[in-house]
Give the backbone structure.
Amino acid sequence: MFDALKEHLPFDAGEVPSGHVKRSYGWHKKVVANPMMNVDRRNQGLVGMSDGIPMFRAKHSRSCIPVALRNANLPDSLGVKFRHMHLSALYPCEYWSNTNKFNVWTRIDKKPKTLILLLYVLTDDLLHWQDGDFVEDCSVPRNDPDRRFLLRAILLYWCGDYPGLAE
């Protein structure tokens, strides 16, 4: 019986593969059934991700932890491309220390033990977007009153394995 109803459920229908974020109950609850988010189709569902990656080809070169947000509203062919992701922060994996008596600075490689401080900043910014802010939709003609609208965004989930996303 469930299979007969499955195609009519808003969170399990459409041209997306099984297990896709748009088929999840979270997408349905946070975006489709959310009265603040479903007011305008242009509101954004975001997927956050981070992981430590080297900044250059050499494995032991300087590295950082990028924090990126991608738009889950876009089709997968566009949404997973780096050019459509928003770099929110870079967390360095090294610091400089001047602890010796000769006043010589030394570079110390040390990955952060936690991203909590960085996530506090990101969360504060996302709370602003949950309430929304007025923006212009450049795909709408200039004289159209619907060009300026209240954009809202919500974080759907967080992925901690940034390189693994490509696989």
Q: What stands out?
A: Residues 5-13 have pLDDT under 50 and may be disordered. The first strand starts at residue 44 and ends at 50. The radius of gyration is 21 Å.
